[in-house]
Design a protein that fits this description.
The chain is 86% helix and 0% strand. The protein is mainly alpha-helical. The radius of gyration is 21 Å and the shape is globular.
Amino acid sequence: MSDHKDIRTTMFSKVIGLFASFGLVVLSTRIWGAEGRGYISIILADAALIGVLSNLLAGSSAMYYMNKFGQNKVFFSSVFWILLTSIIGSAILTFFQPLNFWILCLLAFAISFHTLVVNQLYVNQKFRKANFLSAFVQLLFIGSVFLFWRFKNEISWEYYFVVQIISLIFLSLFFTNFYFKGFLSRVEYQTLFQYGWRNELSYIFQFLSYRISYFFIYYELSISDLGVFGVIVIFAESIWVASRSLSTVLFAKQIDEKGEIAAIQRAQKFAIYSFWFSLMGILVILLIPDSVIISLFAKEFSSTKLIFSILAPGVLAIAVSNIYGHFFAAENNQSILIKKSIAGFLISLILTPLLIYQYGILGATAAMSISYLVSSAVLIIAFYKRKKEILESELFNS
């Protein structure tokens, strides 16, 4: 299948997922308000943090080595690792936060397991199946929440996660056709870990730079403020639907491709696509009248467009640099990913508490946007240096 066909099918599923996610945000806000969304945001952030640990052996490392070490062994070894990290990570986090251990543990497992199954489909170039699974999970999720809300007067916000856990695990199982044939050897585990820790070290700092503001808002402001901020961040990150689609196709194709020139050209082309698609998405959101946003959510969300406009420059920068990040990941060059993530994290760590103290949510948003811009600049500069090296090498060899 050509690049353009793979992009179209992947983009289509991401757009469906985007509309489903938007519907979930609106529905959950109407049911549980800003406070309920605050609890949902903090649990999702915790689950994402555990997911970073799971990805040491079950993320891009599993994707990279699946066809090299055998898909059955990699798959079952990754599932075992996901289960282990979900239990340990949830136990640690719930010790420090008053959250439900089982909800967090099962959610962390479900998200990572679903991602593993989708990645396995991408590795096998089964883009349509992977995209169908991703989209259908979202549709089933929002449909179940809506129906339960429609026929029940009161439901707890925890129900949101129960439905999500069931949807992710149940549907993902239908797309697995593996039979247990043993686990990876110790040497193979070490190889996955060596790839994974460098890649996930980048993701750990990236996660912290993206989500550290959640924890500052949670402890310094209020759970309702976090609910409002979390919804706005979802708005902003929905812009990355094009970037995530393009980067997924880029990574899956590049790990099986030999030519460096072709990889560079594809990355540049995809980055341009990502920029224009993302810019259009930003403009669409900015054109939504304030009255529509308030009617969909509540008066608590009246500052949504102002906060979004502050975050927009950083979001657009990430939309472009994310493509280049996957280019370096497919090259097995995690050092630059670690550098850019550390740069973004340090900016967030320094600026977020200072700006929250001065400007509240607006300050947290400004710190996040600056962090996005700095980390993107590091990655974009590194890509063009790498491009120059490849072109000079090709010229010398010719």
